[in-house]
């Protein structure tokens, strides 16, 4: 700063090359710089010396305003070279701001590939209506919904209902669902294996990945509610929905899946009830999807990728907790991370935050009897944690303690009351 004061008092040289490198950053606006009452000004803004800049940064961010607000506040009254960059770094390293910041914005729409034939790919979900539980299966190609009332919401009940639907339309190649306990169970995995279809799950807490089923649930619940309020027949409402042409395609879900219009209460000619081809459906669906993506992507932005071992924060509820990236999941925008308490989670990129702060080291809090096989116990611990995580938002602080207590006998019960037997060599 003394060099700058001397240069102001002596005057600036005619050539830029004659300026000392420490004051070269001020050359472009040298005519605005003045020295008054022991302070250097750029116009009416105080130029802050190097030794005071860190103190000014702390005062600028003292009230924990956002990055933009902090920069606007500083630019209004202060100046030093690269001030905006220093403020950005200061805010990005603030643990309090990172922990309580807003959710990440939506990313550009990641569209599912249009299937090449009807019932090739099916989305499924459960929903409640008037105290009753229902299973929904919707075809990704035709958007044709199938609904069955469930007598029980266990994996067995869901599997029986899905078998009934598959018996009518055939076995799909792919079934997409959320990570609900009915779909995450070993029983459902065995069902997928025996019936020879691929089961794909969405990222936990990110239902948008199974958006086709989620949207159809909202549509069906709205139809049922309106039908009941109007004292109509809900089955007629469902029939008419299946018979109504899709915007941008010109064919109804019934035509795209079955190949013909369903006969309904509305008078329809025999010619229109005659089955027709579906040669142009995929092309029309693709154009419709591209149009939807254009509109959706106007309100989105792509987030930077994450790498193995990178220290980040994971959104849990309204806060962001320290974590580290273990590896990228095989599904797009999905990562497996470990939090500071040793738990592993799979999360969508939307719920993960890049940060430059120093994250709490990841440690393994599980501590079992050395007589027990470590790999076996770790596998049981991970299965229990995954099971509890998939059932509902878990009480993570109790998982390890509960597991210790349950492993002392010949068996233990999971949170959903499933009994797990220990191998004979581990029993006392």
TrEMBL record:
GO MF annotation list: nucleic acid binding
PROSITE patterns per the UniProt record, alphabetical: INTEGRASE (PS50994)
Highest taxon listed in the record's lineage: Eukaryota
Residue ranges crossing the lipid bilayer per the database entry: none
Single GO biological process annotation from the record: DNA integration
UniProt domain Integrase catalytic: residue ranges: 114-275
PANTHER family noted in UniProt: INTEGRASE CATALYTIC DOMAIN-CONTAINING PROTEIN, PROTEIN CBG26694
Protein name in the entry: Gypsy retrotransposon integrase-like protein 1
Organism: Nothobranchius furzeri (Turquoise killifish)
Classification of source organism: Eukaryota, Metazoa, Chordata, Craniata, Vertebrata
């Amino acid at each position: 700063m003394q060099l700058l004061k001397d240069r102001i008092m002596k005057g600036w040289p005619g050539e830029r090359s004659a300026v000392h490198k420490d004051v070269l950053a001020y050359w472009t606006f040298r005519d605005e710089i003045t020295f008054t009452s022991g302070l250097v000004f750029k116009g009416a803004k105080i130029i802050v010396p190097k030794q005071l800049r860190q103190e000014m940064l702390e005062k600028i961010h003292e009230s924990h305003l956002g990055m933009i607000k902090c920069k606007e506040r500083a630019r209004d009254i202060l100046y030093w070279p690269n001030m905006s960059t220093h403020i950005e770094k200061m805010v990005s390293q603030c643990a309090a701001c990172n922990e309580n910041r807003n959710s990440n914005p939506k990313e550009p729409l990641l569209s599912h590939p249009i299937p090449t034939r009807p019932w090739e790919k099916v989305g499924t979900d459960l929903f409640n209506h008037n105290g009753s539980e229902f299973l929904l299966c919707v075809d990704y190609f035709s958007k044709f919904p199938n609904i069955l009332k469930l007598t029980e919401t266990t994996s067995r009940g869901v599997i029986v209902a899905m078998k009934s639907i598959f018996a009518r339309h055939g076995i799909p190649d792919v079934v997409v669902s959320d990570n609900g306990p009915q779909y995450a169970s070993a029983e459902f995995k065995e069902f997928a294996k025996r019936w020879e279809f691929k089961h794909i799950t969405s990222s936990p807490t990110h239902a948008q990945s199974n958006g086709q089923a989620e949207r159809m649930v909202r549509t069906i619940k709205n139809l049922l509610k309106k039908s009941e309020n109007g004292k109509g027949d809900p089955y007629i409402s469902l029939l008419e929905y299946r018979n109504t042409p899709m915007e941008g395609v010109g064919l109804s879900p019934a035509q795209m899946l079955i190949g013909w219009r369903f006969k309904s209460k509305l008078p329809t000619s025999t010619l229109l009830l005659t089955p027709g081809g579906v040669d142009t459906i995929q092309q029309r669906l693709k154009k419709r999807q591209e149009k939807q993506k254009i509109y959706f992507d106007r309100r989105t932005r792509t987030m930077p990728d994450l790498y193995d071992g990178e220290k980040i924060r994971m959104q849990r509820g309204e806060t962001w907790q320290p974590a580290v990236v273990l590896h990228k999941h095989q599904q797009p925008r999905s990562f497996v991370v470990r939090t500071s308490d040793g738990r592993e989670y799979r999360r969508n990129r939307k719920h993960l935050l890049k940060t430059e702060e120093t994250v709490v080291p990841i440690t393994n809090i599980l501590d079992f009897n050395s007589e027990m096989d470590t790999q076996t116990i770790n596998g049981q611990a991970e299965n229990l944690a995954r099971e509890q995580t998939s059932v509902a938002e878990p009480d993570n602080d109790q998982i390890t303690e509960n597991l210790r207590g349950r492993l002392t006998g010949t068996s233990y019960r999971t949170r959903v009351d499933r009994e797990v037997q220990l191998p004979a060599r581990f029993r006392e």
